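Fill in residues.
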């Protein structure tokens, strides 16, 4: 197996039982175990706590659509230059949006993507919160509200942006490498 982290990575024999169960679910649902699951399993209890919140925030039905959440993930990950998250969530955005051009463009510069006013407001907010969190003001919510977002949607947007800023830092700090499967996922000419 190629290197997936700069730290040691537990195998099926040394990973905690709860982590192995999650790996099995991922294998059944995705056809592979995301490298982030393997790399963070070194501290199994913390990984499972992170996963429970991440899963609740990103993968369950919430205030925002799956496409919205993945759009935010790709904007934040692109700004932070987090290879793992930009690649893996770019794959998810391609899948949910059915638009590989959109996902690839957002990963580089969301301003060049074909986005509506609502998505542009969300991306601009995510960018400011990622780059200059100390400069956030109450007025930053106005464009989101003008674009039709409710307060529960805004709260979820902030939580998603916060989650990806944290996850980007962990992934980048430890050199997490994305699975090869993500590169081909949801591309019209791929075998996946």
């Amino acid at each position: 197996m190629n290197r997936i982290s700069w730290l040691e990575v537990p195998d099926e024999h040394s990973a905690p039982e709860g982590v192995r169960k999650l790996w099995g679910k991922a294998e059944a649902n995705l056809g592979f175990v995301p490298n982030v699951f393997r790399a963070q399993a070194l501290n199994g209890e913390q990984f499972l706590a992170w996963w429970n919140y991440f899963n609740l925030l990103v993968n369950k039905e919430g205030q925002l659509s799956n496409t919205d959440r993945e759009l935010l993930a790709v904007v934040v990950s692109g700004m932070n230059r987090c290879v793992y998250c930009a690649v893996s969530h770019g794959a998810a955005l391609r899948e949910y949006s059915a638009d590989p051009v959109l996902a690839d463009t957002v990963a580089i510069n969301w301003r060049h993507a074909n986005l509506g006013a609502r998505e542009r407001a969300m991306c601009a907010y995510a960018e400011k919160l990622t780059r200059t969190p100390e400069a956030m003001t109450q007025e930053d919510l106005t464009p989101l509200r003008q674009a039709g977002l409710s307060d529960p949607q805004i709260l979820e947007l902030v939580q998603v942006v916060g989650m990806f800023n944290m996850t980007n830092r962990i992934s980048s700090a430890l050199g997490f490498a994305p699975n090869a499967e993500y590169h081909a996922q949801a591309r019209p000419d791929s075998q996946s």
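The radius of gyration is 17 Å.
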